[in-house]
Write a structure and sequence with these properties.
Helix content: over 70%
Number of helices: 9
Radius of gyration: 17 Å
Strand content: under 5%
Number of strands: 0
Shape: globular
Distance between the termini: 52 Å
Structural class: mainly alpha
Largest sheet: none
Amino acid sequence: MEGRYVVKQIVQSLLELLSEKELHAITITMIVQKAQVGRASFYRNFSSKEDVIRQHMAGLLKEWGEAYEALGRLDELLPSLLRHFYKHRDFYLLLYKRGLSHYILDAVRGAMDFSGKSDAEVYSLNWFAGGLYGVVTEWMRRGMEGPPEEVKRILQAGQAES
């Protein structure tokens, strides 16, 4: 229980600091002071401040993945992902604002299982990850003002035109 509390405090502290300054200007000392945890607690859970972001995003994507698997419908993949990004838009918009949106592509690719896949499957999965990243970053550039359903509608309209 204490471990989860410490992790939550560290993540929240880093995100609060990130809303005020660039990642390179944030130190581990600043994070642990704001989180009111010891430096050893930080390094027991994370290897770096970038690792805090990676682990937090991996946890969010794992949460989405479990919810998606429960749906069991391939046609819900993109809509459910868009809803996920929208639900956590404050976090994702903060990453975008700080020039850290590449972590999204890294996390999506990291969540994919390439083992045992053919070359064609690996390329297809990477194509999907890159396309998703492009859609999401364009949506973030626009402030994620439109709901996920609007983005899906725009994408479907674009497919119908081509």
